[in-house]
Amino acid sequence: MSDNQTNSGAVTAEFKRAMRRLASTVTIISTADVNGNRYGMTATAVSSVSMDPPSLLICVNQNASIHAPLLERGAFCINVLTTEHEELVNAFSGRLTGSERFTVGEWRDDASGIPYLDGAQCNLVCDIDTVMPFGTHSIIIGLVTGVRVAEGITPLIYADGKLAASQSLTTGHVRIAANLSSISEFLPQDLKSFRAKNPLIRIHLEEKVSTAVVSAVAENAADVGLITEGPKTGELKVFPYRRDRLVLVVPSAHPLAARDIVSFTETLAFDYVGLHTGSQINLQVQKVASELDQPFKCRMQVTSYDALCFMIEAGLGIGMVPEKIAQTYAKALDVRVVKLDEDWVERTLAIVVRSYEALPVAAKRLVDHLRRLSA
Ligand SMILES: Cc1cc2nc3c(=O)[nH]c(=O)nc-3n(C[C@H](O)[C@H](O)[C@H](O)COP(=O)(O)O)c2cc1C
Predict the structure, then answer these.
(1) pLDDT tens digit string along 274-322?
(2) Residue 163 Cα, ligand 1 centroid: separation in angstroms?
């Protein structure tokens, strides 16, 4: 090997090392051929060229599957990714092929049929002006013909051969009102993952019964509400959040403790420990008991699931609790969990807002996060 070759080999290796230190925002280049077949590729070699005319350049490997259709179509879109789009990076750089890539993310077509990513930091639609082959790549200059820009600043950064800071730079304050079931079953983990991605967004959370959550949102005392479906929500926008199921918790020495499943009617022979008046569980149980024309003997009312389960363990009654919570207490206390043979024990927890479009950016990010987890 000649000195020159050795040198160029060393330079290439060092060049690669050097480029790993150049942090870039990840984008997806997208286009479609005249038959509507979509093509897309993860790219960081994207740069603005001039403001007059508004133009940018991309560098595309001539062997990439998008290369030929891109030049043939003469138009493309640069979709700048957010921290919510990590999954797209691998999908569009080899994990998936062809139009299957577009099953990841919310893709739509613009008026000219070019696919764009809804929810991207921004979408820049371009007509190809100049193509310069260079080495393994084509340098393509595009004239920007259309721009959509999102409010938040949450770039997905690639450095050192991997995704780097995947934290959002969006700041703000979100006021949440949530019922006990959402707080006990799902919110701790969901807010933990939200905080990890959005460390600059402050959260204020207040527990209320679902009807009071609906009022708080309607009166603008809270930006986002989490409820168990049941209360009238009027003009509010409602998104499904999670599903849960009520089960019966009984002391381990109780006559129903050995049963796997019971009907609600059978349980009405026994004293209950209930949650406070106005909680959805209480309202639901009272409603069904009155439909059956049987008394619901609720001897004690408490405001938390731990108090409820302690009362049950002490033999003061039986109670109804979401299954996830019941299973946790069954490990720690001398109580048993019995399934209820009723359709109404399956419940939907929901997100309520006044208007999704009118939410502040920080609250919108939280709603997007919760909806993504609910999918
Ligand atoms: C973070 C990242 C950035 C990339 N940037 C570019 C780029 O700017 N230009 C390019 O041609 N390939 C780039 N690639 C590689 C292509 O996305 C990848 O080779 C793609 O799979 C090639 O397309 P194909 O599989 O459709 O043939 C990048 C890959 C990653 C993971």
Answers:
(1) 998 888 898 899 999 999 999 999 989 999 999 999 999 999 999 999 9
(2) 14
Cβ(60) to ligand 1 under 6 A?
yes
pLDDT tens for 342-353 read 999 999 999 999
Residues 364, 261: one domain? yes
State if residue 361 touches ligand 1 by the CB under 6 angstroms criterion: no
Q: Hey, is 80 helix, strand or coil?
A: strand
* Residue having the nearest C-alpha atom to atom 4 of ligand 1: 43
**Residue 356: which domain range?**
171-375
Q: How many structural domains is the chain composed of?
A: 2
Of 163, 179, 208, which residue sits at a domain end? 163
Which residues are CB-neighbours of 116 under 8 A, at least 6 positions away?
30, 77, 79, 107, 108, 109, 110, 123, 125, 148
Whether residue 347 contacts residue 245, with contact meaning beta carbons closer than 8 Å, is answered with yes
CA distances from 233 to 177, 216, 227, 350 (A): 14, 11, 10, 11
Residues 204, 116 share a domain: no
Residues 367 and 233 in one domain: yes
Domain boundary pick from 138, 163, 188? 163
The CB of 61 under 6 Å from ligand 1? The reply is yes
247 lines ligand 1 (CB under 6 A): no
